[in-house]
Amino acid sequence: MGGYHFHVSGGAVVLMLQSDTLWFLPPLGAALINPKAEALPGYVAFAHGQALYAPPDYSSDDAPVIVPKPHILLEARMRILARDDGTERGEWRSSHNIPDDRWDYINLDLLPRPFKVYYKANKSETISRAEYVVGLKRTLGVPVDPKDYDLDPKKYGF
């Protein structure tokens, strides 16, 4: 759960370990230290000069900052929720979560299908938070304890 958090003009920056937040991606290699745009893996981009993120812009041409693409961050957020829900770590993360309206600019078609389906259903409130979390956990093979969720056991096969 450790990381570095600091404020810059217009926002905050949080640096977290890849193994804690983006474990499902290939390891980030030394090729990303001084990269060329055409050599970037498909899941990262420069944080400047593109309409990837809402402002602020955290980098310049002199010091490029490489960030995961928005749909990758949203997928990571969903994976972390499934992994950490019901734990002390999950409680800390949920108290430091980005509101859902910050994700409105993401092309959801880039998400893997189950994540896209659960995200849209949760966003439109056609499923409860418990159904959302249980769906994510099952998608990822994370064990689900039915005592943790107020859901119909017959409907969810508990």
From TrEMBL:
Q: Which domain of life is it from?
A: Eukaryota
Protein name in UniProt: Uncharacterized protein
Q: Which organism is it from?
A: Chaetomium tenue
